[in-house]
Design a protein that fits this description.
Structural class: mainly beta
Shape: globular
Low-confidence stretches: 1-56
Helix content: under 10%
Number of strands: 16
Number of helices: 2
Distance between the termini: 27 Å
Radius of gyration: 19 Å
Length: about 300
């Protein structure tokens, strides 16, 4: 379905928006020619049928919110880290602080994995958000979430500065969903364009139709999502991006979506990246890992 490109990566940027993984276990009709609504924003996944859809062998299960001991097999949280990068420039400081998160796919199938994270301060500060990626079986990727200066005060503008209140950082839920070769389409990643926080990753779509045997899109309208990862020379996933196809490419049409390329970027139609510019210097190849409706009707 996809075409791969090997652009020479440059310094790039990212956004501060928490995407939602909307995977419906049951629902109504949809058409390929529906107008896409704006991407949903928030920190918890939309409700699906409790109990989740059963998975066929080799297919990632639909799960709307794991909240048990299995959480640690999908996500690991690191220590709050200071970065002197393009995101710090955006907020007007020398350093900014984020929560490093490693996403894991412990399953035996490619899987869309979304992780909800909350940060609660001892003096009443609070923030929540989520990160998402599509990963092959056994793969992991290091990402970032939050500009903590947006919600908490730090002692100084320094790399090792501490927040003025104790922070309790937790993974609050995990959502998973299957990955399909959904459309008869060519999806090609082009050279990054722009500078600093304005850098975008252009993704061109030539869409011919829907393949047989895939679930129907769920709801009255459909939103297509594009997930892209960056691999280093060894094949390890080192960056992840996504975009809601706000312009919606209809069957028989061609369109280009400019995905924000770094964590400092402005969300463009709901899209964002989950790492700063430095991570993209290691990318040897961008790969479109899925292009499919965000919400689908799953039987079972």
């Amino acid at each position: 379905m996809t075409k791969l490109s090997r652009p020479r990566p440059r310094m790039l940027a990212a956004a501060l928006l928490a995407p939602l993984l909307l995977l419906a276990a049951c629902g109504g009709d949809s058409t390929d020619d529906a107008t896409a609504p704006p991407a949903a924003n928030g920190s918890t996944p939309a409700a699906t049928t409790p109990g989740d859809a059963p998975a066929a062998s080799g297919v990632c299960p639909v799960n709307s919110g794991l909240r048990d001991e299995t959480i640690t097999s999908y996500a690991t949280i690191g220590e709050v880290t200071g970065y002197d990068d393009e995101t710090a420039k955006r907020i007007g400081t020398t350093w900014r602080h984020s929560v490093p998160i490693t996403l894991h796919n412990p399953l035996d199938a490619p899987c869309k994995i979304q992780v909800g994270v909350t940060v609660t301060g001892s003096a009443g500060g609070y923030t929540e958000g989520s990160v998402v990626s599509v990963l092959e079986p056994g793969a992991s990727v290091d990402v970032q979430q939050f500009v903590l200066e947006d919600d908490f005060t730090f002692e100084s503008d320094a790399q090792d500065a501490k927040p003025t209140e104790d922070l309790d950082i937790k993974v609050s839920w995990i959502a998973t969903g299957p990955v399909y070769d959904y459309y008869d389409a060519d999806v090609t990643v082009g050279e990054p364009t722009g500078e600093g926080a304005d850098t975008v990753l252009p993704v061109t779509i030539v869409k011919r139709g829907i393949k047989d045997g895939v679930p129907k899109a769920f709801g009255i309208t459909a939103t297509d999502f594009i997930y892209v990862v960056g691999h280093d020379a060894s094949g390890k996933t080192v960056a992840t991006f996504y975009a809601a196809d706000a312009k919606f490419v209809y069957s028989g049409e061609t369109g280009t979506h400019n995905i924000p390329a770094t964590f400092a970027g402005t969300p463009n139609g709901g899209g964002m990246a989950f790492q700063g510019l430095a991570a993209l210097e290691d990318i040897a190849e961008y790969k479109v890992v899925t292009y499919q409706p965000n919400s689908m009707q799953h039987e079972g």
